[in-house]
From TrEMBL:
This is Molybdopterin molybdenumtransferase. The lineage of its organism: Bacteria, Bacillati, Bacillota, Clostridia, Eubacteriales. It comes from Desulforamulus reducens (strain ATCC BAA-1160 / DSM 100696 / MI-1) (Desulfotomaculum reducens). One of its GO terms (biological process) is Mo-molybdopterin cofactor biosynthetic process. The keyword Cell cycle does not apply. Catalyzes the insertion of molybdate into adenylated molybdopterin with the concomitant release of AMP. GO terms for molecular function: metal ion binding; molybdopterin molybdotransferase activity. InterPro entries: MoaB/Mog-like_dom_sf (IPR036425), MoaB/Mog_dom (IPR001453), MoeA-like (IPR038987), MoeA_C_domain_IV (IPR005111), MoeA_C_domain_IV_sf (IPR036688), MoeA_linker/N (IPR005110), MoeA_linker/N_sf (IPR036135). Its EC number is 2.10.1.1. It holds the Pfam family MoeA_C. PANTHER family: GEPHYRIN, MOLYBDOPTERIN BIOSYNTHESIS PROTEIN. Keywords: Magnesium, Metal-binding, Molybdenum, Molybdenum cofactor biosynthesis, Transferase. Pathway: Cofactor biosynthesis; molybdopterin biosynthesis. Residues 186-325 form the MoaB/Mog domain. One of its GO terms (cellular component) is cytosol.
Length: 409
């Protein structure tokens, strides 16, 4: 039996993007809770950082021209007429032939345009120093606004906040940040054979893996997951469970029941719900071919294959980018790593293959990818692997030694 409407991964992404609902719900949170959250708006600096010319060394604030030609044997002598105190405004002025003692981080007093490190000075007496090395204007200083200047967009909307971003926001005095609300994702596992992990097994029954892997993946992507448990393989049970989950979430993931077996009811259930409904059933990918994508009255539904490896890989390719960017379909800023595959791997053209691999670094620095062989029902292969190597749909396979893109977990 043929699956209908099989799309490539790229086509599946495109058709989803066309029908994607607008998800841009915002909330404002304290800066310290901002890590890994996605900015909802551009952040513009309202002040310069630093707000004053600031010394980067312990030494003396001087007029650079007073130091020109200074050498160890013929120092330039200047009068020490003041001292900059940490955290206080330095009024100066530093006149011709004068210097002020200044600590690292101290404010450059007006009149001075450079700092001479204490190592290049000698104290003649309390009031006079000799400078033994010339300084150019701007030496040993961070200029006002050199880090951030007023009016600059310091972070763009859609940016995922990293620790350094929190630091920069603190530097410009932003203590509350506008971020996108996490996408709510409902997770349903279907299959009469499934039992919860805390239940005893019996022949024919297996524990529910996908609820757990998907829950972790949603959290990792910045979404807010809710488990709806194990749903029986019948039309009415799945329909009721899906309606409930759609009501409470922006996205629903259904694992199992997506292929063409007689009990595979996911697609049929989706067809009875809202518009535009089923967008694809089957993608040209291995593993993960029997995947479903749908948009139902502004909510996204994915039918993921039951095999745990396939469900994880399809989640990463299709669902994760939508959760990470809270709705505009732009994946986060990440790049694959290039590694040399260590075996010949066959693949069919017209299909994207994702091969589980472990990575090794050889003595000469080359990074190699060893395929982790095993069927897509084996969760242990995902645990062994460091990532997946992509064999694009244009290729018939790869030969040992060929470079492949590896997406790390
Ligand atoms: N005649 C064909 N049979 C199958 C095809 C095909 O093209 N023709 N495709 C195979 C591929 S590839 C996959 S992937 C699976 C997908 O099947 P379903 O999405 O319908 O999933 P199920 O049949 O419900 O389950 C498949 C497999 O995975 C186990 N499973 C399901 N859910 C879970 C879970 N939450 N935790 C752990 N394990 C789970 C289930 O017990 C089955 O063993 O279809 C192939 N068949
Ligand atoms: O596509 Mo299935 O997802 O190969 O195991």
């Amino acid at each position: 039996m043929e699956l209908f409407n099989v799309l490539t991964v790229q086509q599946a992404r495109s058709v989803l993007a066309v029908h994607l609902p607008v998800w841009h719900k915002e909330e404002t949170i304290p800066l310290l809770q901002g890590l890994n959250r996605i900015l909802a708006q551009d952040i513009t600096a309202k002040e310069d950082v630093p707000g004053f010319h600031r010394s980067t060394m312990d030494g003396y604030a001087v007029r650079a021209r007073d130091t020109f030609g200074a050498t160890e044997s013929l120092p330039s002598y200047v009068d020490v007429t003041g001292e900059v105190l940490m955290g206080e405004e330095a009024h100066g002025p530093v006149g011709a032939g004068q210097a002020w003692a200044i600590p690292t981080g101290g404010m450059l007093p007006p009149g001075a345009d450079a700092v001479v490190m204490v190592e290049y000075t000698e104290e003649l007496d309390k009031r006079t120093i000799g400078i033994t090395k010339p300084a150019a204007p701007g030496d040993n200083l961070v200029r006002r606004g050199e880090d951030v200047s007023t009016g600059a967009v310091v972070l763009n909307a859609k940016h995922r906040l990293r620790p350094q971003d929190l630091g920069l926001l603190a530097a410009v005095g932003v203590t509350e940040v506008p971020v996108l609300k996490p996408v709510k994702v409902g997770i349903l596992s279907t299959g009469n054979e499934l039992i919860a992990p805390d239940q005893p097994t019996s022949p024919g029954r297996v524990r529910d893996i996908n609820s757990y892997t998907l829950y972790g993946q949603v959290l990792q992507a910045g979404g807010s997951p809710t488990l709806y448990g194990i749903i029986e393989d019948n039309f009415e049970s799945l329909r009721q469970a899906l309606i409930g989950a759609l009501h409470e979430n922006e996205m629903v993931l259904i694992s199992g029941g997506s292929s063409v077996g007689t009990r595979d009811v996911t697609a049929k259930v989706i067809e009875t719900l809202g518009n535009p409904g089923l967008l694809f059933h089957g993608i040209a990918i291995k593993p993960g071919k029997p995947s479903i994508g749908a948009v139902v009255d502004g909510k996204v539904v994915f039918g993921l294959p039951g095999h745990p490896v396939s469900a994880m890989i399809v989640f990463d390719l299709l669902a994760r980018p939508l959760i990470e960017s809270s709705g505009d379909g732009q994946p986060g800023r990440s790049f694959p790593l290039r590694a040399a595959i260590t075996r010949n791997i066959h693949s069919a053209t017209g299909r994207d293959d994702f091969l589980r691999v472990t990575l090794r670094r050889l003595e000469d620095g080359t990074i190699v990818a060893d395929p982790v062989l095993g069927k897509s029902g084996l969760i242990s292969t995902m645990v062994k692997a460091d990532g997946v190597a992509h064999i694009p749909l244009t290729k018939e396979g790869v030969e040992a030694g060929e470079l492949v893109d590896v997406w790390l977990f």
